[in-house]
Amino acid sequence: xxxxxxxxxxxxxxxxxxxxxxxxxxxxxxxxxxxxxxxxxxxxxxxxxxxxxxxxxxxxxxxxxxxxxxxxxxxxxxxxxxxxxxxxxxxxxxxxxxxxxxxxxxxxxxxxxxxxxxxxxxxxxxxxxxxxxxxxxxxxxxxxxxxxxxxxxxxxxxxxxxxxxxxxxxxxxxxxxxxxxxxxxxxxxxxxxxxxxxxxxxxxxxxxxxxxxxxxxxxxxxxxxxxxxxxxxxxxxxxxxxxxxxxxxxxxxxxxxxxxxxxxxxxxxxxxxxxxxxxxxxxxxxxxxxxxxxxxxxxxxxxxxxxxxxxxxxxxxxxxxxxxxxxxxxxxxxxxxxxxxxxxxxxxxxxxxxxxxxxxxxxxxxxxxxxxxxxxxxxxxxxxxxxxxxxxxxxxxxxxxxxxxxxxx
Length: 409
What we know:
The chain is an alpha+beta fold. It is 27% helix and 10% strand. It is built from 11 helices and 14 strands. The strands form 6 sheets. Strands 2, 3, 4 and 6 form a 4-stranded antiparallel sheet that branches. The chain has a two-stranded antiparallel ribbon with strand order 1-5.
């Protein structure tokens, strides 16, 4: 999408938010033209696949209105409003996930509007507020949506190959009961309970991109129904008023499929400055102090229904497994089999471009609390504690070399 169009989208979203009586959130500027290298498609797509990608791109930028099924409560009116330039979001556009923990048992409070707080509302309706029973909550910023098709194409065996104790860490898969619309593929290896490995989401709670899209339309976006999920969220303090005459589902199966194709066929985040001596030295140090044990650099996809995704080697710098990250990153909110202190290893590809989509300032970690790479490393505890200690034992020059390496991703 061209830069000028991005600005128009952002301005339009802001105007809609004000008109709807929302929180009047301000959005970061779109990436500058010469920095806008996070856009583009996987090389080698067919003409038909390019057409499907283009349709999904349009839908990703679509600004929903009540006449198109938005609401009555919602988080944002467009996918693109959180994933500006396909990049990482920031605290301004974060969503709030909440629940209740009593005697160690977590309740996502779905009967009181959970799991996500939809604080904006269409005219004549009131946005949600945290219910009195909510005693835990976390702010989550949007992830990068580049290269997801390569992650989706990975076999479970590739992920499991790095699971359990090795190199002083013990990553574990998040086994999830599949959705009613899940269609198992050859890459999926269910366990005896029929659960499949999650690989998307900050705690690996989504098995497929289709799962992620359907959930996002309903919760992360807000109130947009489809054939896979006909439940319309509403403010439980007000009542199940939809505020529109749009017959459910709000969007078609084709709409969902186009969005999935768009996410599957976005290109991988590009590397930069790979021949820089400090970048090379930083990657070597990154490996030496053990960060590579979780942030695994290289995977190869098996055969895929999209030929351009078949047998491709890619470099996400993640193992897609859950790790104990210590008390400092314990958000109090478990998801699936993931405990509150466990997080999926965040893929590092694209992290060097994050500031372009965040208004020029870095917001790292799941909630954006860290404004620099060094600050983000300082929060790593639990299984990563020894790596954090090793990092801060390096000279300042060596630390900056690792920073330069991360900036090149």
